[in-house]
What does this fold into?
Amino acid sequence: IQRAQALGDAALIALQDQPTPQTVLDMSEQLNTAVNTLKPIPPWSQYRGEAQDLLADYQQEADLLNAVAAAQENALIAANESQNPPHPIAQWESIAERWRGTIAQLEEIPTGTPIHAAFVAPKLQEYRNNLSTIEGRVSAEQNAEENLNQAQLTASLAKDQAEIANTLSAWKTALESWDTSVKQIKQIPQGTMAHGEARKLLPKYETDLAKVRTRYQQEQAADQFYNEAVRHAATSRQYESEEQWTLAMLSWRDAITQIKAVPA
It folds into this structure.
């Protein structure tokens, strides 16, 4: 009884002043030792009643600490699994679920107990914050993956559009698709699994975008040359109808100059 009391009382005192996680684990083991020290005292012993009273107190505290210790083990696993990100969505979801389980374990500890005020309450706040952070990671990974998939789909569409483009408006559509794809790639944040893949794709997409932009600008300039040539030709015909031959000749020369500027 004296040995059990020494262990049990020391453990209870150590738990009163904001114990560390390691202290909780150590004192849990110490209280279990106190309980196991009292249990063998036989019914016929004159100390049986005193032992049973102590056993009831220590057993209750030990059960609470065992539950807290189990939650601490879960928290440690969750924290270790979070190291060295980025991680796949499935792993972040698994970590989030472990934090939810840890929080549920601590919520089972009665609020009126000394261990709740000294340790459980602040840990609950900490672990809820951790859960919120992990849920943010899950959301970020999901958004990044969605952006990557959408960027790849848009790039595939842009490639098809460029292959069949034969008008200025068609080249403009292809250019807009490539521009959208590159913007989607750039929106993928660092620290996500999709960012690594995005970094590999971005140089190629930017190269394809530059090629299509150059072709669009060429088509745009050609379209302007062509339209100017048609306008000069229309003016020339108007001058011819008015028998202003010199002006008609000059306008035809301008029309020819413009039409020759249209690239092959």
User: Anything to note?
Assistant: DSSP finds eight helices and no strands in the chain.
